[in-house]
Write a structure and sequence with these properties.
- The chain is of the alpha+beta class.
- The protein is built from 13 helices and 27 strands.
- It has a 10-stranded mixed β-sheet with strand order 3-2-1-5-8-7-6-9-10-4.
- The chain is elongated, with a radius of gyration of 37 Å.
- The termini are far apart.
Length: 643
């Protein structure tokens, strides 16, 4: 039988009598416990609190206990335990030993609000005996909540471009914000062209009867009207005569006369009138969509943890942000409704058209083709019908990312794609690969709806090189490797099925020489200080020394760069070498060891300048390196031929 206790405390001084120190029974007798006081049903821990984890075997013999330590896995890092005796009864418990090489010793979830897992594996006589995964909801500080909202704001403002590349689906581009922006563009076009449109309204001339005092019937229709309205005719003296009936003088007190007047009830104007009805109906539907989602998200009664009232759940931060955004959307839609209503009233006043029929689709007629204002209006209406036909959806990427570091990774992925796209060239492939298959880069399969594409291939503008990008690829041992693929060679935790999973792997294949370069990148939702002191040395040890390229003869390292990407700090970049050997210096060194900041900023600010500088810089350095190497080989071959 196995027990697990987790102690949560606000400072690094262990004092179990302190009221702020809380100890939870996570596992009792192999049974995982539930935490009814939390909304998620799992243990909730403030991000800046310290943890102590104790494990106990019940019923094991002393020899079994001393044989092998349990292993605790947190954030993909393994920790071992030390055996210790507790209490007067001599109970033996394993205490987790925090590693000094990992940032924030004793606080494994610092800066990482959201859902995490603590994996625990017990061994008896070196055989795995019991395994459990304990879910933990990490609560955010107020300052961290502000940072999260900045990322959410960026994701929302860039959602259209992100969805086209990362999600690769038209449905996702029907996000509510895009539909509102499309309606706003239509309104802007109408306002700019409105005066010109009213001056050039198409009309036809048609007869119209009008009732006038002492009128003279001047058409068969007017005479017919007079025959039906005998009370308009009166006998009179010859001096008052208007005309004669049965040789008797008569006058008309009022009569119908026919006049030729302009009529605006033509196809081109009916298209515009039906558009006003359609867009008002669409805007009303969008308001109803917002109302329904606000109703679903307003239940925040369990967002506050009674034990930690100053901290917030990740999901409540996302919900609160989206509720604020929905309020902003509602205001924007109501402003658009008012603008279109005023335009429509002006249109009715000018044309007399009050159309309530079905939507009439625009098509190019000879009049539209030769009238620029109608041509632009029809094109705008046609684009609107295409955009608004896509089902409305909300930007729900934050809900798929159940913790802040995954959301930050997705943000970095979008920025990395933007940077590569800015280099010029053509995207050849955007796919989702199943990385659970034991093959570097996974196997192409249909993309799950809640996950982005994780494989991209791009060809440079001059076809000088091809660039491939993997998001979270699994790198396995030589057992599963093919020529030219990355393999794990590290001795730490090595076994045949062992794998590393960096956040991003970039492969550059130079078409002229056939040379291949790899860049390995990890996104760290950390400060530049933590990355410099902890993350960057760990990445060098893990990926530079622990991964090589398989080439059938021996294992060579074609890894040209290790890059850490961080979210906070004053520095835009951190260098692993002396200033004379940095990437941008004349005497730069390969493999490059760097870190750059990709900071969550406000909507109007760019976040990828540091990343763009790194990518363009290393490609330029690699180009020069391979050109010199290619020329050196040619010169050597020439000398051999001459000799």
């Amino acid at each position: 039988m196995y027990d697990v206790k987790i102690t949560v405390r606000p400072n690094n001084h262990l004092s179990y009598g302190d009221m702020d120190v809380k100890t939870y029974d996570a596992v009792i007798g192999n049974v995982q416990q539930k935490f009814e006081e939390s909304a998620s049903g799992c243990l909730e821990v403030p991000e800046d609190y310290y943890l102590d984890i104790r494990l106990r075997y019940r019923g094991a013999e002393d020899g079994d206990l001393n044989d092998i330590s349990p292993i605790v896995n947190i954030n993909d890092e393994n920790y071992r335990c030390m055996l210790k005796e507790y209490g007067d009864t001599g109970e033996m418990w394993w205490n987790l030993v925090w590693r000094e090489d990992i940032a924030h010793e004793g606080r494994p979830f610092f800066g990482l609000p959201g859902k995490h897992l603590i994996g625990i594996t017990f061994f008896v006589q070196r055989e795995e005996e019991f395994r459990v995964s304990l879910p933990v909801e990490v609560l955010a500080t107020k300052s961290r909540a502000i940072e999260i909202k900045k990322i959410l704001s960026f994701m929302n403002s860039e959602y259209s471009s992100i969805s086209k590349i990362c999600m690769d689906t038209d449905v996702d581009s029907g996000v509510l914000a895009d539909t509102i922006n499309s309606a706003r563009d239509v309104c802007k076009t109408f306002v700019n062209q409105w005066g010109n449109l009213l001056r050039n309204l198409r009309h036809s001339l048609e007869p119209k009867l009008s009732i006038t005092p002492n009128g003279m019937p001047n058409s068969p229709e007017a005479i017919h009207w007079l025959s039906l309205n005998a009370d308009a005719i009166a006998l009179c003296s010859p001096g008052e005569q208007v005309f004669r009936i049965n040789n008797m003088p008569v006058r008309t007190d009022f009569a119908a006369e026919e006049h030729v007047v302009p009529s605006y009830r033509v196809y081109e104007n009916l298209v515009i009138a039906s558009f006003f009805n359609q867009i008002q109906s669409k805007l009303a539907m969008m308001l109803n969509f917002i109302h329904e989602h606000e109703q679903k998200r307003n239940d925040s009664s369990r967002d506050i943890n009674r034990n930690y009232p100053d901290y917030r759940r990740y999901i409540s931060i996302v919900r609160g942000y989206n509720t604020d955004i929905l309020g902003y959307y509602r205001k924007s839609i109501m402003e658009l409704q008012d603008s279109f209503y005023r335009l429509y009233r002006s249109f009715i006043k000018a044309t007399g058209l009050n159309y309530h029929g079905k939507t009439i689709l625009p098509k190019s007629t000879p009049f539209v083709s030769r009238t620029p204002v109608y041509s632009e209006i029809f094109e705008t209406i046609g684009d609107w019908y295409k955009n608004c036909s896509i089902p409305i959806s909300l930007n729900d990427v934050p809900f798929h990312s159940i913790k802040i570091d995954k959301l930050y990774e997705f943000m970095v992925l979008s920025q990395l794609i933007n940077v590569i796209d800015s280099l010029g060239g053509l995207w050849e492939t955007k796919e989702w690969h199943n990385m659970d298959r034991k093959k570097f880069g996974g196997i192409p399969e249909e993309r799950p709806k809640d996950q982005p594409n994780n494989y991209y291939k791009w060809i440079s503008e001059s076809k000088e090189y091809n660039l491939e990008l993997w998001y979270e690829p699994a790198i396995y041992t030589v057992k599963y490797a093919k020529k030219g693929e990355l393999v794990v060679v590290s001795a730490e935790n090595y076994h045949a099925d062992f794998s590393y999973t960096p956040d991003f792997v970039v492969k550059i294949t130079w078409n002229k020489s056939g040379m291949v370069d790899y860049l390995i990148m990890d996104a760290k939702y950390s400060s530049c200080r933590t990355v410099q002191s902890k993350s960057l040395p760990m990445l060098v040890n893990k990926y530079l020394y622990g991964i090589h390229v398989y080439d059938n003869c021996c294992l060579d390292s074609s890894i040209r760069g290790i890059l850490a990407i961080y979210a906070r700090g004053e520095k835009g970049a951190i260098h692993g070498y002396a200033p004379e050997h940095m990437l941008e210096s004349r005497n730069s060194v390969f493999p490059s060891i760097e870190a750059v900041g990709v900071f969550p900023k406000d909507d109007e600010e760019t976040t990828d300048s540091n990343l763009k500088k790194y990518i363009s810089g290393i490609i330029s350095k690699l180009r020069n390196y391979h050109r010199q190497e290619y020329e050196r080989v040619l010169e050597m071959a020439k000398r051999l031929q001459e000799s």
